[in-house]
Amino acid sequence: MSAQLSGKKILVITSNTGIERDELLKPLQALRGYGATVTHGSSKGGTTQTFVGDTEKDQTVESDVQLSDVVSGDFDALVIPGGTVNADTLRQDAAALRLINDFTKAGKTIAAICHGPWTLIDAGVIEGKTLTSYKSVRIDLENAGAAGWVDAEVKECKANGWTLITSRTPDDLPAFNEAIAKALAG
């Protein structure tokens, strides 16, 4: 995929722990490789802890900014990595929920992978959307009003005036990253 994202700004949001390593690092790398400016914001700012398979502590990553200091208007798209603890923590983070709502109200693209779509439930923006996720999140999404859940590598849904891109697991990251790039390249 040769999408050129020069001039595009993408925000990746995480908690400070429990982040699935590849779901943070691979989008950061891929989207920067497409030419986008990518900012990693975390709940508390500073050091974030990644995991592999939700259980194996892996590397730490320095975030660029604290979520409470982020203005959604500065960005073209929002990416929400998975990791059970990451997603469960973000769904209780007022700044993360504010950002998700600001992006949807502005009609901007949001991409969420694995357990990441959990945060969309608590932000109150899942109703009417068709999406995918890690399989254990399916019932929660359906109960929250999602129009449908599909077992697909990547799903793009433009319902309700904003684009949602979702994927299931780290195995889907190449398709997930490419879908984000295509959506932003227009």
From TrEMBL:
Organism domain of life: Bacteria
Pfam families associated with the record: DJ-1_PfpI
**InterPro entries, per the entry:** C56_PfpI-like, Class_I_gatase-like, DJ-1/PfpI
Q: Which GO terms describe its molecular function?
A: peptidase activity
What are the GO BP annotations of this UniProt entry?
Answer: proteolysis
Q: Which residues form the DJ-1/PfpI domain?
A: 8-182
Which CDD domains does UniProt cross-reference here?
GATase1_PfpI_like
The record's section on NCBIfam families has: PfpI
Record protein name field: Protease I
- Protein's organism: Pseudomonas poae
